[in-house]
Amino acid sequence: MKQLLLLILILFMVSCKDETVKNTPPKKVDVIKRDKPYEGKIIKIDTSLYAKFESPVLVDFYAKYNHETVWQSTEFRKIILNEFKNAENEGLFSDDYRFEKLNKLETKINKLSDKELVDYDLLLTYNLQKYIWHISQGKLNPKGIYGDWDLKAKNTDVNVILLKAFKENKLQTVLDSCKPQHIVYKRLKKAMEILNSFPKDTLKTIVASEKINPNDTTKVMLSIKRRLMYWNDLKPQDSLTKNYDTKTVEAIKRFQTRHGLAADGVIGKGTLNALNFSKTRRKNQIMANLERWKWFATEMGNEYLIINIPDYKLRVVENNDTVMTHKIIVGTNKRKTPILSSKLSYAVFNPTWTVPPTILKEDIIPATIKNRGYLASKNITVYDNAGNVISASDWKTSKARSYRYVQSPGSFNSLGMVKIIFPNKYSVYLHDTNHRDYFEKWNRSLSSGCVRVENPLELTSYLLKDTLNYNLEKITEILKTGETKNASIKTPVYVHQWYWTAWSEDNILIFRDDIYNLDDDLFKKMK
User: Fold this and answer.
1) Helix (H) or strand (E) holding 445
2) Which of 261, 312, 360, 522 could form a disulfide with 444 if both were Cys (CB 3.0 to 4.6 A apart)?
3) How many CA atoms lie within 13 A of 206 on its CB side?
4) For residue 37, what pLDDT is reported?
5) Catalytic residue among 134, 178, 326, 450
6) Taking CA 280 as the corner, what is the angle to CA 279 and CA 284, rounded to the nearest 5 degrees?
7) Which helix (H) or strand (E) holds 331?
8) Average pLDDT, the chain
9) Please, what sign has the CA dihedral across residues 243, 244, 245, 248?
10) Residues in CB range of 270: below 8 A, 6 or more apart
């Protein structure tokens, strides 16, 4: 009996202890006091209603307001609904934020019961938090989609943003500040506006088996002319002929220029592919680009290089002003140029080139197996693990991938006369090339991942900012020595290798070929 009483006492004490733990008061939250007068009535929220949202951020927000409704302001509600309604302007979808349901609730706001008002309040907050997250850093996470994208993760605190909007009573201003402010993003939004002004696209796909040259006569020209008139590249005509006349040639050249194609007036595969893009597909492309721009850095530095991979352009920007523009050659679809942001470190004159693993495996070793004289013809020296030079006669296929292959400096070097280094995990850099004729091609997706720059000596001299030691004349003298020399880039200059295929200029739509086939896939993932 004593043992039984002792057991009951222990169980009672444990039970009391458990109850004490369960009843431990929650962590204290600094509740925000609201100044009267305020519009509408404030209603207490049953905290059990939070469960269906499965959102700790939602709970934390309402805890700040003592678990009471917050959207008494008609002005604020209209701002939110208007943002949701026009979400497409930011590359987002109204349905993601329950716009139709919320708008119906707003239309009968004065007839809603207290329970309905609470539900409306919670829905507004939950969807606005989601919307702020999406306009600040995108709907998707690039790290979950791409293996060759290295962008610093953003971490938006939606509640800090919301509390700021309430405190300053400037909801619209605060929401606008969450959106990317870069000029390209704004030009993308303008592109969406321009595109939406076009009528419904009912034109059929254009099929042509051969190139069409000026003065050719072909039935397909009727469809081409209609397409050019639709996109405002060709002025409307009362009657159309099958002849590829002068006015249509000029219209095609305008169209080709807008799409980054060789403006030669010849209608080949590239021009035909661009002509066959429908209004809907262009819209999807713009939305995909708007999503991508939300992933990019908001702080780019006072001075930076911005590389648009599909545009084959490098621009030097200083204090928001483009001071230099260079043509570039970028990676092929098989060996893509990675997307990244970094800080320039130093330039190397008369660089050697250590062959990277991919090029070694796919290019150098197969060529050497076919012809042992290949390495000498390319001025490549082979070293073993001990640093000993391996002659062509001693080169063994079985050990080929364990050797180190180094190309000597010189005009024949694959890196050309200079390379510009910045830290990154892909071992890519900017460099000159021994194939400068490639810059005349319109399709310059030709490299193995690094970015080749036209007129690199001018760029390097500018970046070094040392007119005494590194002006073009001094650089030329250094190059003549044939000796490898490093030069530090002392002024903070950043490099941004990014990817966008659509924008607008002077109210004209601009598109580029999606060389890595990213746009359609990204739009599908967004949906």
Assistant:
1) strand 445-447
2) 312
3) 28
4) 56
5) 450
6) 115
7) strand 321-331
8) 93
9) positive
10) 261, 262, 443, 513
**For 147, phi and psi rounded to 5 degrees?**
-90, -15
Position 28 scores a pLDDT of 66
DSSP annotation of 106 reads H
CB count in 10 Å sphere of residue 143: 12
Position 40 scores a pLDDT of 80
Which of 134, 259, 326, 431 is labelled catalytic? 431
Instruction: Classify residue 467 by its DSSP letter.
Output: T
Nearest partner of 489 among 521, 461, 519, judged by Cα: 461
Q: What local confidence, expressed as pLDDT, does residue 262 receive? A: 94
Task: Report the length, in residues, of the chain.
Answer: 527
Residue 2 has a pLDDT of 56
CA atoms of 487 and 215, how far apart (whole Å):
55
pLDDT recorded at residue 23? 46
Q: How far apart, in whole angstroms, are the C-alpha atoms of residue 289 and residue 313?
A: 17
Query: Which pair of structure tokens corresponds to residue 439?
Result: 């810059």
Other CB atoms closer than 10 Å to residue 116's CB: what's the count? Answer: 13
124 closest CA partner among 48, 37, 53, 46: 53
Q: Which amino acid is at 378?
A: K
**CB count, 10 Å around CB of 227?**
22
pLDDT in tens, 179-228: 999 999 999 999 999 999 999 999 899 999 899 999 999 999 999 999 99
Distance CA 247, CA 467 (A): 50
Residue 178 designated active-site: no
Query: pLDDT at position 258, please?
Result: 97
Q: How far apart are CA 271 and CA 259, in angstroms?
A: 8
Q: For 71-108, write each residue's pLDDT tens digit.
A: 999 999 999 999 999 999 999 999 999 999 999 999 99
Long-range contacts (CB closer than 8 Å, 24 or more residues apart) made by 93-101: 93/526, 93/527, 96/127, 96/130, 96/131, 96/134, 96/139, 97/127, 97/128, 97/130, 97/131, 98/123, 98/127
For residue 284, the one-letter residue type is N
All domains in the chain, ordered by first residue: 47-179 (no CATH), 298-503 (2.40.440.10)
The Cα 99–Cα 370 span in angstroms is 65
Residue 109: other Cβ atoms inside 10 A: 14
User: What's the pTM value of the predicted model, to 2 decimals?
Assistant: 0.89
pLDDT along the chain (527 residues), means of 10: 52 46 55 74 95 97 96 96 98 98 96 97 98 97 94 94 94 97 97 97 92 96 97 94 97 98 96 97 98 96 97 97 97 96 97 90 93 92 94 92 93 92 96 93 94 97 95 95 95 98 97 98 96
Non-local CB neighbours of 43 within 8 Å, separated by 6+ positions: 68, 69, 114, 117, 118, 121
Side-chain half-sphere CA neighbours of 459 within 13 A? 30
Instruction: Write out the DSSP string of 383-419.
Output: E-TTSPEEPTTT--GGGGGGSEEEEPSSTTSTTTTEE
